[in-house]
Amino acid sequence: MTSNTASLVEKAVGANKILDPHDNQEYQVQGVIPDLVVSIDEERDISAVLLVASQNNLSVVPWGGGTHQFLGNIPSQVDIVLDLSKYNRVLDFQPADLTVTVESGITLSDLKTVVSSSDKLVPIESPAADKATIGGILATGRSGPLRYTYGLPKDWLIGSRVVSATGDVSKSGGKVVKNVTGYDLNKLYCGSLGTLGVISEATFKLAPHHPSSGVSIAGLDSLDIACGISSLLMSKVYSPQGIHILNNNGGVANYSLLLFFCGRVPAVLRRVRECANLLKENGIIVTEQLADDQANEMIEHINNMGHSDDTIPACEIKVNIMPDNFLDVWRQCETLLLESQLEFIGDPGFGTIRILSSTTGGTPDNVFIENVSALRQFVSERNGTVTIERCSSSIKEQVDVWGGTHPELSVMERVKKQFDPNGILNPCRFMGHL
Amino acid sequence: MNEWVEDKTKMTVKTFIDELQEIVGIENVISHPDDLLVYEYDGSVDSNIPLAVVFPSSADEVSRILKVTHGRGIPVVGRGSGTGLSGGAIAPDGGIQIAFTKMTRILEVNVENRTATVEPGVINLDLDNHVREFGLRYAPDPSSQRACSIGGNIAENAGGPHCLAYGTTTNHVLEIESVLEDGSIVKLGGLSRDVPGYDLRGVFVGSEGTFGIATKITVRLLPLPEMVKTFLGIFPDIESACTAVSAVIGHGIVPAALEMIDALSIKAVQSVTDAGFPDDAGAVLLVELEGLTEEVEEVTERVESSLWDTGATNVLIAEAPEDRERLWVGRKTAFGAFGTIAPNYYLVDGVVPRTKLTQVLKKVSEIGERYGITIANVFHAGDGNLHPCMLFDEREPGVLDRAMKAASEMMEYCVEVGGTLSGEHGIGLEKKEYMPLVFNEIDLSQMKKARDAFAPRNLLNPGKIFPDGESHAIEAHRASPGLYI
């Protein structure tokens, strides 16, 4: 970036919105330090920066709380970071209509606080909820332990305003809970990692607040039994709202089974009771039963695994798979990823396995890459996907962390070309280095 | 006007039909004007005769058909059951329809994964009935579910009464095999619920057949609930029934369904079937609760009190399946029953914030009176999806024009109060000129970018959704009487 273009950005948004260059280091994206960081507090600033960027072929990375910038491939270039964390107002909250509209820089915690004041719930989960912003959560498609019941953030998004690569602001959807007026571009923006536009505003439909929560925990020595009982639990009318299986490195039992419950009090009580009975009938004893605040803390703890400062893994792989292949894929992960201290967080109902490693364990890059490739082959034959979420930059330099051979890639390339023809938005971060 | 339309000589048409017949067999292409008449229409008021209708049996045949049409620049429209109410299945001049009446197989039901894989011509209710044998169900339930197809549901992102709790079609589709305009076959989405990459599946659903032709669809299924309880709230007028809607939601209850039926609709329904709706009611509300017994029982009292407190003259509860079925048959046959009042109807599909229902319905009534049009209201009150249904006899000079003007004012008012044009029927031909009420040029250009990524030549269902000005404009004709009942 030339000093001339920097001054153009400064002219567009005002010098007071450009951060001190000494702070740029804090906004590095996988080792790439931006030339300029702009603090955004109004939509027209986003437009103004993107207009200048598009006219001068400068790359732009949207930045919410910076909690998930480890995702994706290494960007080919980072000229400007848009820090949206101060663009964080609640614009329209209609409890009676069960809708809320916010600026994209609001954190998930703040949004939850606002809607819970009227006994409403925004059923979105993300690690680091006190830092992660709504824009970032939508762009990365994060979810949490209750994803089996709540789905993904895009399932709750009903409207958005997005700033295009050339600075134009457009809207999609609206503020009503049911809407087929025009294409649902919201779906396209969600999970696109800011490569198609910068999400400026988001409107969500809300759910009623759930007054009660519960978590049941049991220890198991066999993964087969853990998967079998999970499948059985999910087939019942009283199924939990989420199930997780964790491996225990050096724990008393080899695996932990966690059942999550939420909803109205009598229903939660029955689900907890009947699930415990079913486990007992199968020789499994619930060793810990948590309710309400304690249960919520446990759900939050699971949600944050691998994201609190002392647990950030060196490597993290995410596998998405259909429930009937969950066990086989877990086994294959254990076989192919040879680290002794791998941490598995499995969601058999939704079909997700997160595999975390606290160290690189001395595995040479080429071996890691071969193993992931073999796992990918195994999983794709079972209609699943494997994404490397974290790994060393030396590995990222050699692979496409998304896999890169997705059958839809040609259409995705055309989408990217349409929305960001010059490739200035988060360049190379996305699947196929889009 | 495209080159094909200009050059539609007898010889080129014959060669083209021959090519289609070579792909699917002579018996699976119709092109005689008499045979094409029924394909001139869907459930809307517009019509246009297609050049031919093709009945493929496989994705491969669809692909080969599209390679031919792509080579010749011929527009193509996918057609499910033709139940759409926005003109979405009407062919443009010189265009063909691909109809899916031969692709009606349920290919697989995976009970553990709770998925079903189907061909696009499978009827919505047939799928639901089939999977109920496994203790599962397909949640989206448009009122036309006895006739409408899953492929059509995908195109329109169809809704239905139970979408209040479970979401519309888009929330229930995992993977779509689709043929693009150049004949290439792609898979969109995936069998797992969280697929990395751009959500092409998500933007495809509701694209009204302009992105591609779905040839195989995997949908999510839900378990059958333990308890279902349906309340019939009887009200002296529609205003108090609207207040009840807000009261129920205000109590933190999102029922599985929350449907409103006004006095005129009650009379129509009761004249064709005894649904148990009182003849003298000003409006009835159907409120359905589902879930664990404890979940339903806990809120039963609150639902009942919400209905009584807002002026209900009676509240009946149906728990037995046959009693609930009777109520739902009444709700879902309402549009057919309108035939006892007038030979034609025209349905508006606006959505408004729930809290604006009373205000908007007053306006709807005022507009109807001003234009001298009879209006019946049967709609998805829980999610604010209105369906003012204008009833008329098209043989009356000028009445269709008045109905259109009334519809226009209703849509404008929906947008004015923070709502939008369509909740579940799509834009199609019918509402495309109203799109600027909701979206500006930039909004629409972003949408076109998405379409151009899938269909750069705009050969799939062209002339729909966007206001006129694009190629392949359709000179549709308003229909003759008696076709929509």
What does this entry look like structurally?
- The complex is a heterodimer of chains A (434) and B (485).
- Chain A has helices at 3-13, 43-55, 108-116, 134-140, 147-150, 185-189, 223-234, 265-281, 292-303, 326-336, 365-380, 393-396, 409-419, and strands at residues 36-39, 60-63, 80-83, 90-94, 99-103, 120-121, 157-163, 169-173, 198-205, 207-208, 212-220, 242-247, 255-263, 286-291, 315-320, 342-347, 352-357, 385-390.
- Chain A has 434 residues and is of the alpha+beta class.
- Helices cover 35% and strands 19% of the residues of chain B.
- Chain B is built from 17 helices and 20 strands.
- Chain B has helices at 3-6, 10-24, 33-36, 59-72, 124-132, 150-156, 163-166, 200-204, 238-250, 263-272, 293-309, 321-332, 334-337, 357-371, 399-416, 435-438, 441-454, and strands spanning 29-30, 46-47, 52-54, 76-79, 96-99, 106-110, 115-118, 136-137, 173-179, 185-189, 213-220, 222-223, 227-235, 257-262, 283-291, 314-318, 344-347, 374-379, 388-392, 477-478.
- Chain B has a 7-stranded antiparallel beta sheet, sandwiched between helices.
- Chain B is globular and about 70 Å long.
- At the A-B interface, strand 8, helix 6, strand 10, helix 8 and helix 13 of A face strand 10, helix 8, helix 9, helix 11 and helix 17 of B.
Spell out the blueprint of helices and strands.
The complex is a heterodimer of chains A (434) and B (485).
Chain A: H1 3-13, E1 36-39, H2 43-55, E2 60-63, E3 80-83, E4 90-94, E5 99-103, H3 108-116, E6 120-121, H4 134-140, H5 147-150, E7 157-163, E8 169-173, H6 185-189, E9 198-205, E10 207-208, E11 212-220, H7 223-234, E12 242-247, E13 255-263, H8 265-281, E14 286-291, H9 292-303, E15 315-320, H10 326-336, E16 342-347, E17 352-357, H11 365-380, E18 385-390, H12 393-396, H13 409-419
Parallel strand pairs in A: 1-3, 2-3
Antiparallel strand pairs in A: 4-5, 5-9, 6-10, 7-8, 7-9, 11-13, 11-14, 12-13, 12-16, 15-17, 15-18, 16-17
Helix pairs in contact in A: 1-2, 10-11
Chain B: H1 3-6, H2 10-24, E1 29-30, H3 33-36, E2 46-47, E3 52-54, H4 59-72, E4 76-79, E5 96-99, E6 106-110, E7 115-118, H5 124-132, E8 136-137, H6 150-156, H7 163-166, E9 173-179, E10 185-189, H8 200-204, E11 213-220, E12 222-223, E13 227-235, H9 238-250, E14 257-262, H10 263-272, E15 283-291, H11 293-309, E16 314-318, H12 321-332, H13 334-337, E17 344-347, H14 357-371, E18 374-379, E19 388-392, H15 399-416, H16 435-438, H17 441-454, E20 477-478
Parallel strand pairs in B: 3-5, 4-5
Antiparallel strand pairs in B: 1-3, 2-20, 6-7, 7-11, 8-12, 9-10, 9-11, 13-15, 13-16, 14-15, 14-18, 17-19, 18-19
Helix pairs in contact in B: 2-4, 9-11, 9-14, 14-15
